[in-house]
Please model this.
Amino acid sequence: MPKLYAEKLARCITGLAFFGFGITLFLRANLGLAPWDIFHKGLSEKLDISIGLVIEGVGLLLLLLWIPLRQRPGVGTILNALEIGFVVNLTKPLIGEPDLLVIRALMVVAGVLVIGLGSALYIGAGLGSGPRDGLMLGLSKYSIRGRQISIRVARTVVELTVMVAGLFLGGSIGIGTLIFMFGIGPLVQLILPRFEMRLLSDQKR
Model:
């Protein structure tokens, strides 16, 4: 069991590092960000602090909303709140902003792939959902006029809300936003079972 937990922890940490690096690729490509990162960037510019610090701060504040939603954080939840922003701040100065549109487009595609792989690694580790995903899961437990709120509806409402808020804060959308929104779900769905099956096989040994 300790060996299995160590592997899960390593997968989680590696996955979150990939996730943070993927965000950096999107930032440097400058072709549009994921909805949450539109909000993070807008808030970063308004407060004049690094976007990595904003990602960490928002993640930790969202955990407070978990209390009334009766969500329980795991080790992966705390790592998610802290590590992604740290990696963004660490890698952003190392990646330049290319002028060629082709290179920027390739960075967006690479960003989606890296974030997809990172998501599969940390979700497959099973050490707790991220602060933002946990908010959506918590909302899905409630009902409106007797009808249960689906995870899909909760996710859509939350992401549209933060995206609009980000636009008001000065953020912007682009082709990268659309690529992320329509690409990340199918990509994670494709990759995730491979990591979950590996973990299950490890448990049987």
Summary: Residues 3 and 85 are 28 Å apart (CA to CA). The first strand starts at residue 143 and ends at 144. The chain has one domain: 2-204.
